[in-house]
Amino acid sequence: MRIMEAGPGNPFQPGTRRFAYYFDCRDVDSLYDELKPKLEEQPAGNVHGPTDKPYGQRELLVLAPDGNLIAFGQAIDRREV
Predict the structure, then answer these.
(1) Is 75 in contact with 27 (CB distance < 8 Å)?
(2) Distance separating alpha carbons of residues 22 and 15, to the nearest angstrom
(3) Of the four, 8, 25, 30, 69, which is 20 to 30 A from 58 by CA?
(4) How many Cβ atoms sit within 10 Å of the Cβ of residue 73?
(5) Order of all β-strands in the sheet with 57-63
(6) pLDDT, tens digit, for every residue of 28-54?
(7) DSSP string, the chain
(8) CA distance 6 to 17
(9) pLDDT at 15
(10) What are phi and psi of 32, to 5 degrees?
């Protein structure tokens, strides 16, 4: 787990909260499948992914009820993005 301070302008972080929690995973898609029933209950726009990012991660982003961003990611080969 990593805790990082996010910069301003992140659309997934409304208000003044600026910290993100990043969990490294082996299989983001399996995690998404497991969490999907609860994720579908979240307001529109509070869940993004899983999707491949150009910096070599496959990520699932979830906006928590307190406004903090929770990210789950796994390393992927950048050539596949």
Answers:
(1) no
(2) 19
(3) 8
(4) 21
(5) 2-5, 19-24, 69-75, 57-63, 47-52
(6) 999 999 999 999 999 999 999 999 999
(7) -EEEEPPTT-TT--TT--EEEEEE-S-HHHHHHHHHHHHTTSPTTSEEEEEE-TTSEEEEEEE-TTS-EEEEEEE--GGG-
(8) 9
(9) 53
(10) -60, -45
- Counting beta carbons within 10 angstroms of the beta carbon of residue 58, is it exposed (0 to 12), middle (13 to 18) or buried (19 or more)? buried
One-letter amino acid for residue 70 of the chain:
I
Which amino acid does the sequence have at 72? F
**How many Cβ atoms from other residues are within 10 Å of residue 19's Cβ?**
12
**pLDDT of 16 higher than 60:** no
Q: What is the pLDDT of residue 79?
A: 62
